[in-house]
Amino acid sequence: MINISPRRKPNLTTAVSVTLSALSLMLSCVQSATASGGSSIERQPLVVSSIVPETQANPPGMAEGSGVWVNLWNYPKTDVEGYCQKLYSTGIRNLFVQTSRSTTEAITQPTELGQLIEACHKYKIRVIAWSFAELKSPMADADKMIVAARFRTPSGDRLDGIAPNLENNLNKTVVEAYSKHIRDALGNGYPMMAVVYSPLNRAPMVALTPWKVLAKYYDVIAPMAYWNGRYQTVDAYTYTKRTVERVRQLTEKPDVEVHVIGDGMGTRANEITEFIRACRDVGAQSASLYPNQKTTEEQFGAMSRYSDLMPANGRHRLEVLRTLLSRGVVASPPTFDPAKALSRGEFMKVVAHGLKVPNINDSSEAFGYFKRLGVVDVVASEFPEMAVDDDLISPISLEAGQKFVTVAKKAVISQAKAHHAKGLFKGNPFRANPFNANQAQAAPAGSSSSTYLSMNRPTRVDRLFVAPVYAAGETKLLSPTDVKYSGKQHHINYLDAAQLFEDLNQ
Q1: First and final CA of the chain: distance in angstroms?
Q2: Nearest residue to 1 via CA among 293, 248, 272, 302
Q3: Which of 307, 389, 440, 441 could form a disulfide with 452 if both were Cys (CB 3.0 to 4.6 A apart)?
């Protein structure tokens, strides 16, 4: 988290794309077509900062939503309650607090840390410890993180995860020894995030980063996308987007969970907005800002727009996508990237499985089914490309997808009702689980997920939160006329499809 680069101000456009907000609107429209279930992306009004949020179930997750970072020298030591209210009212749901360096005690400020943990948890804000590890003595550095993970406040509260900051001595053997020691001590279920340089950073040590080792031991990879540096001359949007794409390539794990740390060292609101927009477009799961000493009011204001640009459940979308891939609902192409556009045929297949249509094994079968049901012809009246059965590999636009889902859901429900009336089958096939019940795993406690969406991860409901992240005063979804596309059409990608599938399964 060290700033070693002089500042450069790129000339950025401030045009903001909110197409995923439009996707949320699409899915909420789809939801209204049936009386069953509720949407996992439903927007809730923000509770004013002076009111403590209601207690709610705490499903597993790490760093869901926006965050800010605090180093050893900038703990809030007066009016901690007011500081946490400030975080909550601006949509911050993760506070990354430095607990040590290689040259300090494991917990440098235990009293202040305890106060922060208890106040943040009162406002449903995670507190994640980070430490700058020089890795001259990897076991000693690892022990500091273990001590932090086991830290308890006077009332017995604890941290929500750890985020080792790995910038020095990136030798593969050293990093693996350090990481394995922590993981062995804390167990596979403890949430761990690796803070590393962006792979685009041209500092010599960056080339040594053992990406596959990081993907093996850590739940989340958190690259520092500091676009204003002496090693790069790229704008915030481009640098951030390329960073995430490169992390997926280097880990050889395209579904790796990525939390992007943005450059807050002298950056202005327009840059931060472009940074968040890039995180959205590239399918990052969440994002945060590392400020220069303290977060400015302008930066807080920019981060409060987070929910306008990022989905509120980015991590869960990725978990659903992993399930869809493992169950063969969508195919993984040779150069798979979850932010890439999904083919039209695969989209239809996702819709079919989301509506629990039996015996749909490929895109052609999905197209044929919706053709027979009349869905294709209805949608093609507005989007002619949907009627072309020999071009199922082309992407599908957000608008066409919205239309298709709305028409398809109504048609399938009507068909199910007609079959019931004729006594062609018993039960409710529309609500039936399309997957083998014997393969299903129990959903985490407090989760709204269907049983087959569990990723075989231990529950961590005692210390992890998933709270809605919305700017103060935000009370409504954008209407279709409010959507801006930043000069290009948005095509539905794999993560959009996962969100769609989840909504259809409510």
Answers
A1: 41
A2: 293
A3: 440
Q: What is the pLDDT of residues 416-449, one digit of tens each?
A: 887 766 665 544 444 434 333 333 333 333 333 3
Cα 57 to Cα 447, 448, 461: the distances in Å are 8, 10, 8
The answer to whether the CB of 342 falls within 8 A of the CB of 363 is no
Residue 373: both structure tokens together: 């049901």
Ordered by start, the domain boundaries in the chain are 62-312, 323-457+476-504
**pTM of the model as a whole:** 0.76
* Beta partners for residue 92, in sequence order: 66
The amino acid at residue 415 is Q
Tell me the per-residue pLDDT of 264-305, one tens digit each, with 9 for 90 and over: 888 899 999 999 999 999 999 999 999 988 899 999 999 999
How many other C-beta atoms are found inside a 10 Å radius of the C-beta of residue 202?
13
Give the CATH fold of the 62-312 domain: TIM Barrel (3.20.20)
Q: How far apart are CA 63 and CA 490, in angstroms?
A: 26
CA distance 238 to 340: 16
Place of tokens 């608008």: 399
Question: HSE (CB half, 13 Å, CA atoms) of 435?
Answer: 18
Maximum Cα–Cα distance across the chain: 76
